[in-house]
Amino acid sequence: MKKYNIFFVIGIILSVTLLPFFLVDKIKIIEDKVEDKKEDKKEKINTEKDVKKYVEEEKSGQTIRVRHTKTGEVVAMDVNDYLRGVLPSEMPPSFELEALKAQAVVARTYLYNKIEGNINGQIHKDADICDDFAHCQAYHPKEKIIEIWKGRGFTESQIQEYKDKVNRAVNETTDVVIKYNNKYIKAFFHANSGGMTEDCKSIWNKEDIPYLKAVASLGEEDHKYYKTQNKFTKQEVEKIIREKIDSNYTYQKDIEIIEYTDSKRASKVKIGNNILEGTKVREIFNLKSTNFNIILSDDIVEFNVTGYGHGVGMSQTGANYYAKQGKTYEEIIKHYYQGVDVIKNK
Ligand SMILES: [Zn+2]
Fold first, then answer.
1. Secondary structure class of 213 (helix, strand, coil)
2. What is the full DSSP assignment across 142-169?
3. Ligand 1 mean position to 128 CA, how many Å?
């Protein structure tokens, strides 16, 4: 009995002495697990932060009505949301941020100028602006833009980068517009000027607009349409001229530029007995700009064209070049539209 008692007592003593160690161990394990969970949580918060680092879509607080030309549908949306759909439809999202900002301000100004001119619905009866690039400015809904980008082979991370850039360009210029004498300017722009923009007076109705003068535009040579060439056979030229200008026309090496604008674009072109505006020649021969020369042979008419677009206002290629040189969007805008104010609308 005594022996058992001794073992019993030793057992109890051992248990009492060792128990705390077991317990401590257990407590430690539990604490470790809690720490693990804390770590998990930390990581989750970090990921959420990463997500939040993407630029959020801020509203401008003003609603406008946009008409979809194809469906006839009119959709109400926030001005900044509208501009997020215009910006990548009008300028490559790979361009510099300051160039994109300049384009955002140009697009916003273009919108307000349209709204101001839409007295009694004479431009659009039921909307403020439409999505037709030839009538107003190009606009695509968000989903469509992602679809276009995917179609161009952009990766997921590129798409996120471009979305962020477009958001920043729009958010960081919220309410910024271009005015001249307190009025929204006619914010014309084009892809590539070919080295010199065009005086508005030289091509459209001879209207003299002080902020739409010819200015030098550097860094345009890398654009894929900087130099283009259009060749037509004698028969093709005759067909075009007969259909659109003069039904009796016969080609006799008789096409000649007889007048140039100040920025060396074709202003008047003589074709047989007809004198055409440079813009008309550009239209009927589908040339990239009116900055061209003509080379004639017995059977071929060749147009060598520089630049892309009408050349009035901001050159997008030039804007991107100046942004790369460290110019701000405001400096870029003031270069292309001389004498204007770049100001917040509210
Ligand atoms: Zn329109």
1. coil
2. HHHHHHHHHHTT--HHHHHHHHHHHHHH
3. 8
β-pair partners for 223: none
Among the listed residues 323, 329, 334, the one whose alpha carbon sits nearest the alpha carbon of residue 94: 323
How remote is the CA of residue 217 from the centroid of ligand 1, in Å? 29
> How far apart, in whole angstroms, are the C-alpha atoms of residue 314 and residue 217?
9
Mapped onto helix, strand or coil, the DSSP state of residue 294 is strand
Taking the centre of ligand 1 as the mean of its atom positions, its distance from the CA of residue 265, in whole angstroms, is 28
- Domain residue limits, the chain: 2-44, 51-221+311-344, 227-306
* Dist CA 196 CA 313 (whole Å): 10
Q: CA neighbours within 13 Å on the CB side: how many for 175? A: 9
Q: What is the pTM of this model?
A: 0.81
**37 CA from centroid of ligand 1 (Å):** 57
HEC states along 61-121?
CCEEEEECCCCCCEEEEEHHHHHHHHHHHHCCCCCCHHHHHHHHHHHHHHHHHHHHHCHHH
Q: What is the mean pLDDT of each run of 10 residues along the chain (346 residues)?
A: 57 52 46 48 53 81 96 96 97 97 98 92 92 94 96 96 97 97 95 95 84 96 95 97 96 96 93 96 97 96 97 97 98 98 91
